Automatic annotation (TrEMBL):
Family in the record: Belongs to the 2-oxoacid dehydrogenase family.
Gene3D superfamilies: 2.40.50.100, Chloramphenicol acetyltransferase-like domain, E3-binding domain
The entry's keywords: Acyltransferase, Lipoyl, Transferase
Residue stretches making up the Lipoyl-binding domain: 11-86
Species this protein is from: Streptomyces stephensoniae
Protein name: Dihydrolipoamide acetyltransferase component of pyruvate dehydrogenase complex
Residue ranges occupied by any Peripheral subunit-binding (PSBD) domain in the UniProt entry: 180-217
Composition bias type Low complexity, residue spans: 100-115
Chain residue ranges for the region called Disordered: 90-120
Length: 483
């Protein structure tokens, strides 16, 4: 969704949206429009990078671009005007003076609107909270758009955070407004097959929350996913190399501004390491049979079109281990002094991207078949490689896998993602001498490391989970007998 103000009848200002989830700024990566260009309601005008991801911003009104207040590469605080639009081209009214680019965010006060003017939307780009704002909601157009346009608008809204107008006052009857919900909540509803029009909102200003969606998905009370915190800090799966800063030949040091994803990673790493007591256990396991299974699955017609690799079997093994030891899938609620046991698994996969480390997760991974899990893993990695992972895809993770083995590393002590209870590190699979059936033979061996939050997970429980994963990888038939 997007933030807008109206400084006059002719010129309207578009502010950097409230990015939510504790984020207060975003960097303008690219402008898709220039002064003099015509824009329409819902058209993407720029791409910005938050500490979560790169996100496209749609503009919420029609007109002609009058001015771009900031250039590409500029970090802008939430609430600052980034573009002004002439909504009445040809009018003789003069444009308002533009403040300096370094000025503080515009004051929230705006000229008083007529009493009968509909309230404007109070928007966010991503996240779970809506900041106090004096902006006014834009009224819905009186004429109903064609069905195709409505579908396109809905897709634009879900992917890019385009806000939904509030219901108009009784005096100006208009079509029923689209349910209000943040992009992560819309994604959750889509994943669960829930029609937001049927959900009773409990949030401020009639906004549908994640808890509302979970309540609609199941009659029985269920633990809702905690709001996502800063980007996770697990060691990554290699996707692509981080872009190196330019340096001169004579430079002995390079100073890189700490911002965006890197800044959020640092904050999350410190927060996790010093708030959750970490315990890490290790086990070395013969995965020869797992590697044989991987080879057989690659030839299976049921797996055609999806990528089959050891990570797929490891992910399935962890899901089975969690099913056998459900208490490990939990979160610590410090504010309410509660342990939140989660009856779903959103499986995170750590990935290194050009913008830094991210951990998108596969929603409801516990319900997926092996082909479905393989397809989800492939899509997750491809999206991360392209730098198109959405904030919703990184929200609500419960446990994570980090594959340090792709770097040739034997093992590590991974740091928990904030809000999660466990993370499994997978080392390199190597041919090693191993005692098999009483004889020393060359076998394919790897080392697993499981870090867990000792407030939630006792040593016995953590050991059982790790031992179960190792047992499945040693004898993959347990995927059938135990599942």
């Amino acid at each position: 969704m997007t933030t807008m103000t109206q400084t006059s009848a002719r010129f309207r200002e578009f502010k950097m949206p409230d990015v939510g989830e504790g984020l207060t700024e975003a960097e303008i990566l690219k402008w898709f429009v220039q002064p003099g260009d015509t824009v329409t309601d819902g058209q993407v005008v720029c791409e910005v990078e938050t500490a979560k991801a790169a996100v496209e911003l749609p503009i919420p009104f029609d007109g002609v671009v009058h001015e771009l207040r900031f250039g590409e590469g500029t970090t802008v605080d939430v609430g600052q005007v980034i573009i002004t639009v002439d909504v009445a081209p040809g009018s003789t009214e003069e444009a308002p003076p533009a403040p300096a680019a370094s000025a503080a965010p515009a004051a929230p006060a705006a000229p008083a609107a007529p009493a009968d003017e509909p309230k404007a939307r109070t928007p966010v780009l991503v996240g779970y909270g809506v900041a106090e704002s004096s902006t006014k909601r834009r009224p819905r157009k009186g004429a109903a758009a064609p069905e195709a346009a409505a579908v396109a608008a809905a897709v634009q809204a879900e992917l890019n955070g385009h806000g939904s107008p509030a219901p108009a006052p009784a005096a100006d009857a208009s079509p029923v407004a689209r349910p209000l919900a943040k992009p992560p909540v819309r994604k959750l509803a889509k994943d669960l097959g829930i029609d937001l029009a049927t959900v009773v909102p409990t949030g401020r200003d009639g906004i549908i929350t994640r808890e509302d969606v979970h309540a609609a998905a199941s009659p029985a009370p269920a633990a809702a996913a905690s709001p996502a915190e800063a980007p996770p800090v697990a060691e990554p799966v290699a996707v692509s190399a981080t872009e190196a800063p330019a340096v001169t030949a004579s430079a002995r040091e390079t100073r890189i501004p700490i911002k965006g994803v890197r800044k959020a990673i640092a904050q999350a790493m410190v927060g996790s390491a010093f708030s959750a007591p970490h315990v890490t256990e290790f086990v070395t396991v013969d995965v020869t049979r797992t590697m044989k299974l991987v080879g057989e699955l690659k030839e299976d017609k049921e797996m055609a079109g999806v990528r089959v690799n050891p990570l797929l079997i490891i992910a399935k093994a962890l899901l089975v281990a969690i099913k056998r030891n459900p208490e490990v899938n939990a979160a610590w609620d410090e504010a309410n002094q509660e342990i939140v046991q989660k009856h779903y698994v959103n499986l995170g996969i750590a990935a290194a991207t050009p913008r830094g480390l991210i951990v998108p997760n596969i929603k409801d991974a516990h319900d997926k078949t092996l082909p479905q899990l393989a397809a989800a893993l492939g899509e997750l990695v491809a999206t991360a490689r392209d730098g198109k992972t959405s904030p919703a895809a990184m929200a609500g993770g419960t446990v994570t896998i980090t594959n340090v083995g792709v770097f040739g590393v034997d093992t590590g002590t991974p740091i928990l993602n904030p809000g999660e209870s466990a993370i499994l590190a997978v080392g390199a699979i190597k041919l090693q001498p191993w005692v098999h059936k009483g004889k020393v033979k060359p076998r394919q061996v790897t080392t697993l490391a499981l870090s867990f939050d000792h407030r939630l997970v006792d040593g016995e429980l953590g050991s059982k989970v790790l031992a179960d994963v190792a047992a499945i990888l040693e004898q993959p038939k347990r995927l059938i007998t135990w599942a």
